[in-house]
Amino acid sequence: MFDFITEFMQSGGYLAVFALMALENIFPPIPSELIMPFAGFVAARGDLNVIGVLIAGTAGSVAGALPWYYAGKVYGKERLEKFADKHARWMTVTHGDIEHAMDSFEKHGRKVVLFGRLIPAIRTLISVPAGLAGMPMGQFLLYSTVGSLVWTGILTGAGYMLESQYERVAQYVDPVSKAILIGLLGWYLYRVATFKKRAKAQ
Question: Which residues form a coiled coil (predicted)?
Answer without folding.
Answer: none
